Amino acid sequence: MMAKFGAYFLTASNFVLTDAAESIVNILASSFAFFSISLSSQPRDANHPYGHGKIEFFSVFIEGGLIGIAGIVIVFKSVYNIFYPHEISNLITGAIIIGATGLVNGSLGYYMVKRGKQLRSVTLEADGKHLITDMITSVGLVGGLLLIHFTRIVLLDSVLSILVGLYILFTGYKLVRKSVSGLMDEADFSIVTEVITVLNEKRRDAWIDIHNFRAQKYGNELHIDCHLTLPNYFDLNQVHTEVKLVDQLINNEVTKTELFIHTDPCVPQCCYYCSMPNCPIRSEPKTEEITWTMDRVIRNKKYFE
After folding, report:
1. What is the 3-state secondary structure (H, E, C) of 205-253?
2. Which of 4, 278, 292, 284 has its CA nearest to residue 141?
3. What is the mean pLDDT of residues 142-171?
4. Structural contact between residues 212 and 227, judged by C-beta atoms closer than 8 angstroms
């Protein structure tokens, strides 16, 4: 941030100011992100039985909001300077400074996005994407400064600043949208699809069907509720074993997950798609292979209903 503001005072360029203003947002957003990640990593307690992970969505909301405010300020100042232009100078030096800061931000941003995906931390990923956006802005900024320097068209400084400001505003909107979807428990279809794929690939004969499937994210933890249909002649120990196998499969193959599995006994209408061998109560042979899909598993009823 200090380097970018140094470049701004050196050049007096609105275009450089767009990058410097966003750096203020970087510091404020990262400070809150640090706090939210520290809080979300704390164990559950009596007041927070699902953990503290939701704080990460507040962090993303604040970051997106700050980015949006920065974009609006940049656009308004740039429009003002179209009508009231001022002299700019030392553009090559400014371009070198901005290029160096962009390289640092980009490297850190890619690392944070990578770690955020590994840890399934929406805050780390959002902050990393913000830094990558900052790098892209810096690359465009360097090109714009060189263009202004060689063409001597001062008006380009404000015009390019408006374009960058609008891009920053759009980035802020996407982050706010993502945070609101998390706070509203909007389904994460990518994770649900991944879970369903693994269940299909490792499906056991006793798992007749899965339905009423719901998933919620709390920070880096996933919570899944579902109904699992099992043969009705299984005793409680067998039911517990099958439920435990589903739990272990998702935790080992997908992500750290807390599951609440309600078991349903099979009924004669399940026979036509049941793969259970040597079933003592089968009323009809298996005639259909049903693949678990998103549409099937989220319904609150068995497949024949």
Report:
1. CCCCEEEEEEEEEECCEEEEEEEEEECCCCCHHHHHHHHHHHHHHHHHH
2. 4
3. 83
4. yes
The CATH number given to 189-297 is: 3.30.70.1350
pLDDT at 86 over 80: no
- The SS3 of residue 279 is coil
Among 42, 145, 56, residue whose Cα is nearest residue 92? 145
Q: Of the candidates 74, 57, 67, 59, which has an alpha carbon nearest to the alpha carbon of residue 26?
A: 67
Say how many CA atoms lie within 13 Å of 295 toward its Cβ. Answer: 2
At 85, which amino acid appears?
Answer: P
What are 9's two structure tokens? Answer: 């005072």
- The sheet with strand 209-218 has its strands ordered as 209-218, 221-230, 257-265
Max CA distance (Å), the chain: 89
> Which is nearest to 23 in space by CA: 38, 8, 39, 10?
8
Separation CA 274–CA 32 (nearest Å): 51
Report yes or no: 4 and 98 within 8 Å, Cβ to Cβ: yes
What topology does CATH give the domain 2-183? Alpha-lytic protease prodomain-like (1.20.1510)
Name the residue ranges covered by the structural domains of the chain.
2-183, 189-297
How many CB atoms lie under 10 A from the CB of residue 96? 12
pTM of the shown model: 0.61
Structure confidence at residue 246 (pLDDT): 93
Task: Report how far residue 66's alpha carbon sits from residue 74's, in angstroms, rounded to the nearest whole number.
Answer: 12
CA 132 to chain centre: 15
Give the pLDDT band (50/70/90) at residue 107: very high
Please state, in angstroms and rounded to a whole number, the distance separating the CA atoms of residues 179 and 284.
49
Question: What φ, ψ does residue 202 adopt, rounded to 5°?
Answer: -110, 20
